[in-house]
Amino acid sequence: MGAEFWVLVGFVGFVLVLLWVGAPGMITKALDARIDKVKTELAEAERLRQEAADVLADYKRKAVEAEKDAAAIVEQAKAEAAMIAKEAESRMQEFVARRTKQAEQKISMAEAQATSEVRAAAADAAARAAERVLSQDVKGAAASDLLAKSIAEMKQRLN
Question: Please, are residues 147 and 130 in contact by the beta-carbon 8 Å criterion?
Answer without folding.
Answer: yes
